[in-house]
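FORM 12-B: Structure-to-Sequence Request
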């Protein structure tokens, strides 16, 4: 009921149901994680962090990323705290969890905060996330890898990786991937023009 309410954007109702769920099953990482998401959607940052922390203690590694994101952006009653954000992002990569690695790679690649932005770490996390998919790469993970390659100025590889992601993604989601590909292609074309101009 709580998850259904959350999906329907009835956030306060979701909080009520999910608080009952964690009272009934206090060792369910999933229930604590969903409660954190409901609090976050309700703009109650401190309660969201507390619920995500409990979820993380119970093994929900994606919760560590969510805490990092809350501290990075600040707001919702949470102070912007780059040290805390970086701490939680680093915790999330201590696990062989492809989604946590992917999310952290995206944060490292796209953050505008110099304390968090780390292109080399982004590439390392993104490559590991894709490797964990073995023979079945996830398009979203390939998209993150392409962004990590791009911020490391490996434009040709970024283009190839994004093309691979586009070939796998559903038609309704292609537009965002195509936009990313255009960005990488422009960077590659610009690099090639500069190289030819030097000759």
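FORM 12-B RESPONSE
SEQUENCE OUT:
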């Amino acid at each position: 009921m709580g998850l259904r309410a959350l999906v329907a954007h009835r956030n306060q109702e979701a909080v009520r149901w999910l608080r009952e769920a964690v009272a009934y099953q206090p060792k369910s990482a999933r229930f604590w994680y969903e409660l954190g998401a409901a609090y976050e959607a309700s703009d109650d940052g401190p309660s969201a962090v507390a619920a995500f922390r409990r979820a993380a203690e119970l093994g929900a590694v994606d919760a560590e990323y969510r805490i990092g994101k809350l501290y990075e952006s600040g707001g919702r009653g949470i102070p912007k705290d780059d040290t805390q954000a970086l701490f939680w992002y680093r915790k999330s990569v201590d696990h062989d969890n492809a989604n946590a690695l992917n999310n952290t790679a995206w944060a490292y690649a796209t953050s505008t905060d110099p304390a968090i932005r780390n292109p080399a770490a982004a590439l390392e996390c993104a490559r590991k996330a894709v490797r964990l998919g073995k023979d079945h790469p996830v398009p979203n993970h390939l998209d993150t890898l392409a962004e990590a390659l791009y911020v490391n100025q490996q434009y040709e590889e970024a283009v190839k990786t994004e093309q691979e992601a586009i070939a796998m993604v559903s038609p309704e989601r292609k537009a965002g991937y195509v936009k990313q590909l255009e960005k990488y292609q422009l960077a590659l074309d610009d690099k090639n023009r500069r190289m030819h101009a030097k000759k």
